[in-house]
Every structure is written in C-alpha cells, then in structure tokens.
Specification:
31% of the residues lie in helices and 26% in strands. The chain is an alpha+beta fold. It has helices spanning 11-23, 61-80, 99-111, 122-128, 148-161, 205-211, 287-294, 297-305, 309-318, 320-327, 379-393, and strands at residues 3-7, 28-32, 49-50, 84-85, 89-93, 118-121, 136-140, 144-146, 165-167, 172-178, 181-186, 191-194, 196-199, 219-230, 241-244, 256-259, 265-268, 272-273, 339-351, 362-365, 369-374. The longest helix is centred in the N-terminal third of the chain and has 20 residues, at 61-80. It starts with a strand and ends with a helix. The protein has a six-stranded mixed beta sheet with strand order 9-2-1-13-21-20, sandwiched between helices. The chain is built from eleven helices and 21 strands. The protein has two domains: 3-47 and 149-218 and 359-393, 3-Layer(bba) Sandwich (FAD/NAD(P)-binding domain), CATH 3.50.50.60; 219-351, D-Amino Acid Oxidase, Chain A, domain 2, CATH 3.30.9.
Length: 395
Amino acid sequence: MDSCLIVGGGLVGLATAYHLQRLRPGVQVILLEKENRPGAHQSTHNSGVLHSGLYYQPGSLKARLAVEGIREMIAFCRQQGVPHEICGKLVVATMPEELPRLDELMRRGAANGLTGLRLLDAAALRRIEPNAAGLAAAHVPEEGIVDYRAVCEQLAACIRLAGGALHLNTRVVGLHERSDGWTALAADGREFNGSHLINCAGLQCDRIARLAQAQTSLRIVPFRGEYHQLTPEAAHLVKHLIYPVPDPAFPFLGVHFTRLIAGGIEAGPNAVLAFAREGYRLTDINLRDLAESLGFPGLWRFLRKYPSMVTTELGLSLSRTRFCRSLQRLVPDLRPRDLTTGGAGVRAQAMTPAGDLVQDFSLVTTARALHVLNAPSPAATASLAIGRHLVLQLP
C-alpha cells in the first residue's frame, strides 16, 4: 500500500489518518472532507463527554474500543495540551425496578475492565451530589469531559505535520475501483487516487458505501438530540455528570446532565427523528434526506416497536416544561426557568431493514476498502482506538 484515501474528516477519520501515519510509515494519507473545517458535525455537536465502557455488551467491539479509547484519548489530550477533566459520572436509579438494571451495568463495567467502580446507596449519592434524587447510583470515576473541537484541531495539525494531505471543501460524489486502487471524484471535478479506501463519513457513510458499491443493507437514520443549559443561578444544582439508568424499552440513554469543559451545565439530549442528516433545528428539512428516511421500511418497523417515542421525544422538543419534568427525576429542585436553549447534535444511527438499531460498531471490509457504517456514541471518545483498529485491518 502506497497511499490511502480517507473520506470524512471527523474524529474517526482524523484518528485513522493519525494512526496510519504512525503504523504504516511511508504511506501517503489523503483525507477528503466536504466541510471547511475538520469535525464539523458529530465530532463537535455532542456533549463533550469522555465515555467509558459501562453500557456495552462485554466482548463487543464497542466495549473493547471504548475502554481502550478513553485511556488513549486522555493520553493524547495530556500530550497535546487539549483541555479535559476527569470529573466522574453517576448513573442514578430513581425507581425500584431500575436497581437490577443498575447491578447489570456494574457487572458490565467490571467485565469491560473499568476501574474504581462503586455502587452507592442514597446517602452516599447525596454526599457526592447533594441535589440529586435516587435510591442508588453507580459511580464511574474514569469518565470526564473534553474539548473535542480542540482534539480535532490537534489531530489535523499532527496529520499535516507528518506530511498528510487534508483537503477541505471536498465533497466526494463518485468512487471508482481500479485494478490498483481507487479514484475519488469531488464535486468540483478534482480527482484523487489511492491504493486503498477508508470510509469514515459519519452521517453520509452509507451513501459513500453505495458509491463504492459495498454490499450492505444498513441505512443511516438521523436522530437529532437537543440540549438545554442551566442558568448560572441554577448551575450549583449539578456537580458531576448525572445520568439515568437506561430504559431497555427505549433505544437511547435518556436526558442527563453534563458539565461543559468551558464552564456551565448542559442538560439533554432528547432524540427526535431529524428531517435532515445535518439538521440541527426542528425547521431544518432536506427533501432528499427525508425521502430516504421515509422510504426505508426499517424506519416504519422501528416506529411500530417504539410507538410512544415520537410523541414523547417531540414533546420534549416543543415544551421546556416537559423537558424539565424529565430532568426532575434526577434533580427535583430544577425548574423550567432554570433552563435556557442550548445546542443540538445529530446522531448517525445505522438501522437494519427489520427496524433494529445496530448496537455495535459496524465495519464492512473488501479487498481494498473499509467502510465504517455505524459509529455513534462513544465513537468520539473511542476514535483513536477505532482508528488504530481500522489501520490494523488493512492488508
């Protein structure tokens, strides 16, 4: 291999290029990113949390790379001077039926190699978070917060310093496999050649895979997550990261509280079907994206499995009072007046035609190409571990 095309300049694409230069010295890295800066979408439209491997099925790729990834990300931040803080997280059970699920999270975390996990009773929870309500909580000391925009900038700088080519404003509209590699055609007519191809296109990854004629039935269905911020007067109510115990009847984690690396407290996100793959507001509509989602049988099967999801999550989007009520399970003293509108992100979630969300990271491999077709949270935290894993898969 003498050169490699990487499509997508988010954290996973950047981390892949970073490791390719270190593990395959002499290989020319050509990274193609359609936006005018690296990490413009999922990489910097998230809560900024450093996730560990608490939630994920032991033995899964996601579990292994999450645990490896958080440690590698912290080491990278220390080396590069990227702002971060290991502040710890609490996963709180507020109802008796959540206690067995909390025990299962503790088991998973221990099986995945997390260190320092503690199960707290209500009194111990209150000593750490005086305003939190709960019967018990898992304390995860390894988790923290980070400036992912700064991580993207530092990775891009490292890639350029090592001689890599990072082409911004370069939207790939065609991919052609040759006998000796790949040609990528950009929207402005430029062509880029490489002996191998790695697709790290995030919200557009299934489309890039189809351009490369990769065999997959998965489809990216975008879900927007909306956040509120606590007012400065209410910020004292939260000191760490506070999460609910995930509901097995619901495919997302539920609204929670996170500290921001620049200061302040963020609350959210909900999860509503986005009308555009890069639609950060309710009013953002892309007709092509919407038509693809509505024309995908898997989405309708998913909605039949979770009939209350649409109304519940849309209600959180439209009503600050409802959003606050969902947060009051964790912090009862919070009031709607304590919330101001925050940012939003869009999750690139792969879905099967049967309507199931793909839970693990998903890779499709051919002789000269790798396609990352599912890398939602904790992919930002795990990006360096994912990048190394991808490079090691190359022939």
